[in-house]
Give the backbone structure.
Amino acid sequence: MASGNARKLAIRDSHCRLYGEDVTDWNTQPTLSGEHVRLEPLTPEHAKGLFEAGTDPGVWTWLSVRQPADLPAMERFVEQAIADPDRRPFAQLDVASGRVAGTTSYYQVAEKHRILSIGHTWIGADWQRTGLNTESKLLLLEYAFETLGAQRVAWETDIRNLRSQRAIERLGALREGVLRAHRIRPDGSSRDTVTYSMLAPEWPAAKARLSERLVTAARLPR
């Protein structure tokens, strides 16, 4: 317990840094490329690939939208994501095959306060438990902390989605609490939301863990 308290105090002291004006424009959405995944700004041209990647109903179990029933519905899904002023949506592309694997977003972006969230994320069944998802998180966090100079990155997930909670915790994020009756699920039920965050001083250790996980994942058979 003492070491945990010391860690919290160290973070509290060290994150009180000054954030100047010499930071990349937060309105610019980049293309982020790695060995396994390329994250590029979502466009209508990605709709067909997303529809093919998202055919497994299990992908949509905990998402805030229903599974698109056909390609026109996926096209509307993409259009809404692009039009949302609160989001910076990406398509996740499998580098090896060139196929669209899924999507993810920065959202709740507040440049003034140097904070943003990562979410609206899903990948097709073919890419789950592979290095693609790990590298995607690594690229997003690296850009947020090292290019934008973010002081905080946050995540939100359904309280029933234990798998997502464990995955976020493995990133090195800290569970902060629960927002009660925070969302309405597609089935009309009320959703409590678990919130997590990572601060800039926590990023170097998290980056090392993610990089090691990526090396391990690359050794596993697909």
Summary: Helices lie at 2-14, 47-53, 71-83, 131-147, 162-170, 203-219. The two ends are 40 Å apart (CA to CA). Confidence is low (pLDDT under 50) at residues 1-16.
